[in-house]
Amino acid sequence: MSALALILANRGHSVSGSxxxxxxxxxxxxxxxxxxxxxxxxxNIKAICSNVNLPPVVVVSTAIPKSNPELKxxxxxxxxxxxxSDLLAALIQAQPSIAVAGSHGKTTTSTLLTxxxxxxxxDPTAVIGGVVPYYGSNGxxxxxxxxxxxxxxxxxxxxxxxxxxxxxxxxxLDHTDHYSNLDELIKTMKEFGQGCRQLLANYDCPIxxxxxxxxxxxxxxxxxxxDFAALPICLNGNQTIADIYEQGELMGQITLPMPGxxxxxNAMAAIxxxxxxxxxxxxxxxQGLADLQPPGRRxxxxxxxxxxxxxxxxxxxxxxxxxxxxxxRLMVTSGLSPLPCPPKRLLAVFQPHRYSRTHQFLNDFATxxxxxxxxxxxxxxGAGEQPIQGAxxxxxxxxxxxxxPNLPVKVSEDLNQLTLxxxxxxxxxxxxxxxxxxxVNCLWSQLELLSETQRYPSSLAA
Length: 462
Fold this sequence. Notes:
Elements (H helix, E strand, L loop, with lengths): L1 H9 L5 E3 L5 H8 L3 E3 L4 H9 L6 E4 L8 H8 L3 E4 H11 L2 E5 L4 H14 L5 E8 L4 E4 L6 E4 L14 E4 L13 H14 L2 E5 L3 H6 L4 E4 L8 E8 L4 E7 L2 E8 L4 H18 L3 H7 L11 E6 L2 E6 L4 H17 L10 E6 L4 H6 L1 H7 L5 E4 L15 H11 L5 E3 L3 H11 L4 E6 L7 H7 L13
Helix pairs in contact: 1-2, 3-4, 6-9, 11-13, 13-14
């Protein structure tokens, strides 16, 4: 929503909104002339209507409940209501565009794609789900030919996006609050792909390979039978070196300043999209690779605390947790890391996100977290859902212990106790990897505020 607000304000529209948090994003919007109310109140709608000549259009997302006072006031005033996906669809339709979809990696892929276009003087418009480090924002109103958008599948609205090029990173069941089974998700993603003029897809994903007919494919496992390939020569905790192939022909070698095979796949998708829709040469793209950085909350180094390195990551699906821990493990085993110091041990701090996801993937989460040296669990972040019996962090802890009997696991009652658990159970040289899509990212701030003289609680939940 904030990215759309930023773009509309930059294009001369009068934009207002509300947010109780005074974040960097809110401050950036204010500098662009956006009126941001500190409270969500029906009075905001009245204030907006009193200051304009034409009735305003009110944009909502799926996350806005019917009980929201601004939405209720909007309906009472009989104002036009537009879903954020319809607004994004209008922007996508207005210019050549690349829409990045998929279960995992779409924010990173769209960020890398935007950065490559920006560093090659293409100045794209961008609507991304995370902060693009190159711009310091999740939105950018570019003057160039292309628009890059992250196409979120969580509510099925991405079928509205008629992109010039659609990109699908991978596909597996998620968002079980919206999709009852994998077939429903495949159907939705197929509809998205069919609505795009061209489709670029990941050959390494078995579900995509079986069910989709893409215009072009990329892989990080083979150069045979695919249009684009990045075959790793060196994978360590600091970077990835790979040979790039196009239509089976070796184009050259790249050094990606980001570790992990999943990031190599994301980068290959971005390079392929730039070749297909951006018309950029391999040499142009190779020069831009040095500036690539993951988006905010994707292995985001927050700082060092008592010789522990704190990293924040958005991973909230078993596959994402597995990939993030595998990348961190590379840093431990290789002794190389983009962090100030190579870590000696992995302490995973995980906050399950949504009861429906926790219930669906309880054992998968337990398996994925097994690659850590110790695990601390926060309570489930419900994201507005009602609790489901058995979908708790205590149940997840039992599942972890059943699969990994020797793995230390602790459960906190709240985020305050989680902070104390980190203080008690972390060691010097640890990488404290904080994962989750909820409010667990506040842990770094709490650690900074934590007094060294605070006593540990006498008992801890197990």
